[in-house]
Amino acid sequence: MKQKFLSSLVILTAAIVWLSSCSSKGNAEATPAEETKVEEADMVDLSEDQFKTVNIQYGAVEDKNLSSVIRASGVLDVPPQQLLTVSSPYGGTLKSTDLLQGKPVIKGEVIAILENPEFIQLQQDYLDYKSQLVYLKEELERQQELAKENVNAKKTLQKASSEYNSMMARVQGLKSKLQLININPDKINSGNISGRANIYAPISGYVTKVLVNIGKFVNANQELFEIVDTRHLHAELTIFEKDVPKLKIGQKIRFVLNNETKERFAEVHLIGREISAERTVRVHGHLLQEDKNLLPGMYLKGIVETGVATTTALPDKAIVQSAGKSYIFIAAEETKEEKKPADGKKEEATEKHIPFKRIEVTTGVSENGYTEVILPEGFDRNSKVVVNGAYDLLSKMNNVEEEE
């Protein structure tokens, strides 16, 4: 019984191996057919008459000296020192302001007025401490004179000196606080104490944010306004990691703003030293000509000129675009012959068809009528490339595909 079971197991195993072999053979035989089908999809042919009508012309892949460039996108931006947020170290009620978004301001002009009773107390304390400081200074000088004549005790002189220095520190502290809220300590007297403080524009520029309104109480260091100086805008470009080794300080940048055709110029000033999660680097470019009408945040498309390089190129007319990809056509080796009825005759005439093959390529920089092309591996550089009539070949190929 055991021997019979083993014999059945051997037969079953052999059957499985045979079926797997047949299946593998079928798949292997299907592969060349699929490849042939793909190759035929990239083929198109013209009759001799069509060839003459289209005026097909051939050329060859050439080595050209083209300007090597890096294409990038980015925005206009301003350095941190040209974009300022206005706030106050003390809270208060906003009593006055006429700022609106887009309004120009000049450095040093009053842009708002805050009111707070604490401002009155600060000034009163300053005048009080300043008066006491005068008395303590005179007392210290008197004790120093007495010490020279050994009239007073050393302890008395030390106390006078300590009180004077302590009061001096208080006066200086209050003076600094008053300066923080833009109150000039040297102009304070008992007749001009006020509970209001001016807020001045820290730079010249344009108001981009107004975050308060008259009558609103604002807290200490709360953001009130934002002012930007657009005279020193720069182009902030995003460059992919693979292009970073080509970058150098001083390289020329050509860029166009969104919805504009005017070309503007800048130069590479700083290159970021950190790769982002998107594998990109930020590049800072200084504008060669400032324009006060430009605004931060404007989108741009730029080109960084990295020098001249020898590269594989073809005339622009040889490259066609279809479905987001770039193609060229080359002359195929064989010429097809088809039979067709001759006019007014029973016998058949032979008509020649010239075949062409479509090849996908990757394009690079374009200059002076030539475009850089990256050819597929194994491409024969002696191939006859269609440099005139490529779009006609593409149109016929698309028509044939639609008919099918």
Task: Outline the structure in words.
It is a single chain. With 404 residues, this protein is α+β, with helices and mostly antiparallel strands. 30% of the residues lie in helices and 37% in strands. It has 5 helices and 22 strands. It has helices at 2-41, 48-54, 117-148, 154-180, 390-403, and strands spanning 43-47, 57-59, 62-77, 83-86, 92-96, 104-105, 110-115, 196-200, 205-210, 217-218, 225-228, 234-240, 252-257, 263-271, 280-287, 299-315, 320-322, 325-331, 336-341, 348-367, 370-374, 385-388. The strands form 4 sheets. A 6-stranded antiparallel β-barrel has the order 3-12-15-14-13-16. It has a 4-stranded antiparallel β-sheet with strand order 4-11-9-6, with no helix packed on it. The protein has a 4-stranded antiparallel β-sheet with strand order 8-7-5-10. A hairpin with a 5-residue loop joins strand 13 (252-257) and strand 14 (263-271).
N-to-C SSE string, H for helix and E for strand: HEHEEEEEEHHEEEEEEEEEEEEEEEH
Q: Indicate the percent of residues in helices.
A: 25-40%
Provide the residue-averaged pLDDT: 84
Strand order of the largest sheet: 3-12-15-14-13-16
The whole-angstrom Rg is: 42 Å
Please report which band the strand proportion falls in: under 5%, 5-15%, 15-25%, 25-35%, 35-45% or over 45%.
35-45%
Distance between the termini: 63 Å
- Low-pLDDT runs of 5+ residues are 1-6, 8-12, 14-19
The number of strands is 22
Keywords:
single chain, 404 residues, alpha+beta, six-stranded antiparallel beta barrel, four-stranded antiparallel beta sheet, 22 strands, 37% strand, elongated, disordered N terminus
